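FIELD: query
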Amino acid sequence: MEESITILDAIKKQFACKEVDIRTYSPLTLAYIGDAIYDLVIRTIVVERGNQSAKGLHKTTIEYVNAKVQAKMIDALEETLTEEELAVYHRGRNAKSYTSAKNASIIEYRKATGLEALMGYLYLKGETARMLMLIQTAFEKIDMKI
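FIELD: result
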């Protein structure tokens, strides 16, 4: 029987990545990887729900991957986060970014950045199940079907 390995473990092994204490990463670094992993989760769900054109896949994906929705998600999740998760979210939300979303307020953008930092933190910690549970819970709480 083949041993199950996460994509993160496979990447670290294949490319000989050194172990790093993720608590030392800047919140914007966590948000950078968190943005990508959140996008990958949503794209995976969209693709698994049915074959469609690339344009259709993109249209469906952007309903879930945008600052306004992510801000609603974190508002719905805040009370369920652990102290550690809340601290990571706050670091991400309060980080000074030099960019902003074109279709969201600065408050929504900062909240979204905080959520992405949390997603990145959980991913890098190997807590994929917790990350996926938070995403699912958020969508249920804001009454969005995915």
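FIELD: remark
The chain has one domain: 25-141.
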